[in-house]
Amino acid sequence: MSTENRVSQKRGHGTKGSGLTRRGFVGAMGAAGVAGAIGSRSAMAAGSGRISVYSTTLPPVQRRLAEAFTAKTGIAVQSLRLVNNPLAQRFLAEQQAKQYVCDVITLGIDTFYEEISKAGYLAPIDDVPGVSKLSAEWRPGKQYVNILVAPLSIGYNTNSVKDLSTLKEWKDLLRPEFKGQIIMADPRSNDSILAFLNMLHAQYGDEFMRALGAQSPKLVPAVPQGVEQVIAGEARIILPCLAMNLLQYRETKAPIEIISAPAPTQGTYFFTGISANAPNMEGARQWLSFILSQEGQEILCKDNGVSPLGKIPGSLDPVASLDKIDIPSALKKAGRLYDLLGLSA
C-alpha cells in the first residue's frame, strides 16, 4: 500500500474511483460482480491444515509472517493480496454467494469493517489471545482490530540531506535549501494527498501553504515514482512518504531514508478480522493471535509501522498526534488549497 491509495471517509485507504461508501459496501455488488470476483474457489480454498489470508500487507512482509506462523503452528498460509477495494469486493462477493474461502481479512478501510460487522460476516474475537490487551485506540470495533499504523512522514536522500537537525518537522520544508528540491504526489489526482495537505493547512494556515507552493515542489503521479526520483538525486525530499514505500530498497543500500513522523500526521491503517464463515476457524484464530504477539509484531512492524504493543524492536516510534483522514472535507477545500499552492484546478 502506498500513499497514492484513496482513503475512506474516516480512517484508512483505498483506490480512487471505487464507489465504495459507508452505506454501500455490503450492497455494492450484483450477481455479475459476484461471479467475476470469486473466480475459482478451489484455487484459494482452505483445508484443515491451511488458512487463507486476504491482506493488503506488502508481499515480503506477508511472506515472512506466513513462514514464521507455519513454523510455529504447522498451519500453511495461502495469501491473496489486492489493494483495498478489490479485496473488499472479493470478500463480499464470496460471502454473498456463500462460497467461503477467506479465513482472515486485513485491509485499510474502517467503514468496510463496520458494514461487514453489521452484516454478520465477522466472527467474535474477544477470547483470541492478545485481543483483550489492546487499548481502545487499537480496537475500533468489537469484531476487528488494528494491527499496525504506517504514519505519513518525509523521505529524504541521505547523500544530499546530511544534517537532520534541518529536517525534523513539517515547517522545515520551507527552509531555503529545499526550494526546488521537494517532490510531491499530485493532490489533484490523489485524494489522500489532498487530505494530508488539508491537515497541514488546518495546522499552519494560509501562509504556510503559500510558502510551500513557493518552494516549487515537483509533482509526480504517485509517491513510489517520487521515491525513485529522490534516490536518483533529482530532488532531496519526497512528500509525504511512508516507511513501507522504502522497504524494497532496504537491502540495496539506496540513498533513501525517512524521518520520524512529525506531529500532527495521518496514517495508513491495517484493520483485521476473522470471517464468520472461515473454513478454518481455529487456524484463523491462531493467525490473529500470532500477529498480535511480540514475535508477529516484530515481523510486521520492522521498518514498516507503529505497533499496538508500543515501541518494539524494529518498529517505528509511536506518533504523538495522529489526525483523522477526512477526504470529504478536503475535497470541499480543494480549490482553496490549490490556489494557496499555486496549482491550477
The percentage of residues in β strands lies in 5-15%
Q: Pairing-aware structural class of the strands and helices?
A: alpha/beta
Morphology: globular
Q: Tell me the number of strands.
A: 10
Largest sheet: 5 strands, mixed
CATH arch. level architecture of the largest domain: 3-Layer(aba) Sandwich
Structure commentary:
The protein folds into 2 domains: 31-149 and 269-301, Periplasmic binding protein-like II (D-Maltodextrin-Binding Protein, domain 2); 151-265 and 323-341, Periplasmic binding protein-like II (D-Maltodextrin-Binding Protein, domain 2), CATH 3.40.190.10. The two termini are 26 Å apart. With 345 residues, the chain is of the alpha/beta class. Helices cover 34% and strands 14% of the residues. The chain has helices at residues 31-38, 41-44, 59-73, 84-97, 110-118, 191-204, 206-214, 223-231, 281-292, 294-301, 327-332, 334-341, and strands at 50-55, 76-80, 104-107, 145-151, 153-157, 182-185, 218-220, 237-241, 256-258, 267-274. It has 12 helices and 10 strands. The model is unreliable at 1-47 (pLDDT under 50). The protein is globular, with a radius of gyration of 20 Å. Strand 1, helix 3 (59-73) and strand 2 form a beta-alpha-beta unit. It has a 5-stranded mixed β-sheet with strand order 2-1-3-10-4, sandwiched between helices. It has a 5-stranded mixed β-sheet with strand order 7-6-8-5-9, covered by helices on one side.
